[in-house]
Design goal:
Layout: E1 2-9, E2 12-17, E3 36-38, H1 43-48, H2 58-66, H3 70-74, H4 79-92, E4 107-109, H5 117-131, H6 133-136, E5 137-143, E6 146-149, E7 156-162, H7 165-174, H8 180-185, E8 188-194, H9 197-203, H10 206-228, E9 234-236, H11 241-247, E10 256-263, H12 280-288
Antiparallel strand pairs: 1-2, 1-3, 4-7, 5-6, 5-8, 6-7, 8-10, 9-10
Helix pairs in contact: 5-10, 7-11, 9-10
């Protein structure tokens, strides 16, 4: 790890190389000197030197301020209160039956969405309502040039905004490099969107952590449901947040994407005996010509 000394010798800056010891990073916080600056810090370096930064660690600041005492636990909302709030929200803020029928394309029946996406979303809408997971989180689908909201218990998608090719390309570039091909060829891209304030209404800052936990559970349900429906989901949790939130028209604070799922149809299994008589060289040739599994 290269470091930069702030002192000068003979009117020139001196570069130093520091080799980390065995105990470097083992359950300890390294307090660097005030005249030391890391030139190319690794994620571990950033964590170890977090207390040297005047801003500190945002995650640790949150954790320190979100911890509950016994008095907080006594004042925590009951399960019944939480259920009533969810029921009110889903019956009011997620009801779209008043949309005028003469406006075409605003709602789309899930039965009109081809498999595996349509059946999977129908199952997620039902499970999300039963479990409450579609309260602190939303499922938003980018499909056929528009983003669509999946309301809990709904049999329809609700169109949120049109998304042109330029924005779609921005979304692909925002994905991790090793997953861009999957996002570029996906038939749909699903955003698991976290909305912390809905949980924080009852639980205060603690609700932020609960909302993230619920989004993780919702992601698991979504991926498993897509796989059972015959899809081949590709999950990305590391991405360029600003680009993603721009595409999905989210402010990045009160609404933000926690995970992206690229949806493609799983390759059909090859029938028994289809590879009889084929050599490994034949398989390589077929792959070069894009034949692959059919």
């Amino acid at each position: 790890m290269a470091t930069l000394s702030d002192h000068q010798k003979n009117n020139r800056i001196v570069f130093e190389t520091v080799e980390p010891g065995y105990e470097h990073g083992v359950e300890q916080t390294v307090l660097s000197g005030p005249h030391l600056q890391l030139l190319a810090p690794t994620p571990r370096d950033l964590y170890q030197h977090r207390l040297h930064d005047v801003d500190g660690s945002v995650s640790e600041t949150y954790q320190a301020n979100a911890r509950w005492r016994l008095s907080d636990l006594d004042a925590a909302p009951s399960d019944n209160e939480a259920q009533q709030l969810r029921a009110w929200f889903l019956a009011s803020g997620r009801t779209y039956s008043t949309i005028e029928e003469n406006v075409p394309g605003v709602q789309l029946a899930l039965t009109d969405v081809p498999s595996p996406l349509g059946p999977a979303l129908a199952a997620v809408a039902r499970l999300g309502a039963e479990s409450g997971l579609l309260y602190g989180s939303d499922v938003v689908v980018l499909w056929r040039g528009a983003t669509w909201l999946l309301p809990a218990s709904s049999s329809h998608l609700v169109r949120m905004r049109l998304v042109g090719p330029k924005l779609q390309r921005r979304l692909v570039r925002a994905a991790p490099v090793d997953k861009r091909a999957a996002f570029d060829t996906a038939s749909a891209i699903v955003s698991v969107t976290t909305v912390p304030w809905r949980v924080e209404i009852l639980q205060g800052p603690r609700g932020y952590r609960v909302a993230l936990q619920q989004s993780g559970l919702l992601l698991t349900v979504l991926v498993q449901t897509l796989a059972r429906a015959g899809g081949a989901p590709t999950v990305a949790t590391d991405f360029a947040d600003i680009e993603v939130d721009t595409v999905f028209d989210q402010d990045g604070v009160e609404r933000f994407t926690t995970a992206l799922v690229a949806v493609s149809a799983a390759a059909a299994p090859r029938p028994p005996g289809a590879d009889a008589g084929r050599t490994p060289e034949d398989a390589v040739t077929a792959a070069d010509h894009g034949e692959g599994a059919r």
